[in-house]
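Entry 12.
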Amino acid sequence: MTDWQNYIKVKHLFTQNEDHDSIQKSMTNIADVLSNTPCFKGFPKDVLAKFTNIPKGDDIFRPVDYANKLIRQMYDYADVMQIWIE
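Predicted 3D structure (C-alpha cells):
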C-alpha cells in the first residue's frame, strides 16, 4: 500500500462541461494550484504551461481530450511522488 506523503486539492476544479471555455478555465485554475504547491515543484514546466493553453481542437481531438491527457500526466507525477490528489 502506498504511503502518501503529500496531499493536494484540485478535483473541485474539474468541470463536467466539455466546451473549450469551461475546460480552459478549469485547467488554468488547476495550473495555478499546481504551480503554487511545493510538492509539485518538480512537475515539468513545459507540461504545466500546456494547462493554460488548451487548443480548441477539431472533430477528432477535442479540448477535453487534450485536458484529459494533461490530467493523466498530473496523476502519473503524483503517483511517482506519492502525492494524494483530492
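Annotation: The chain has one domain: 6-85. Strands lie at 6-8, 83-85.
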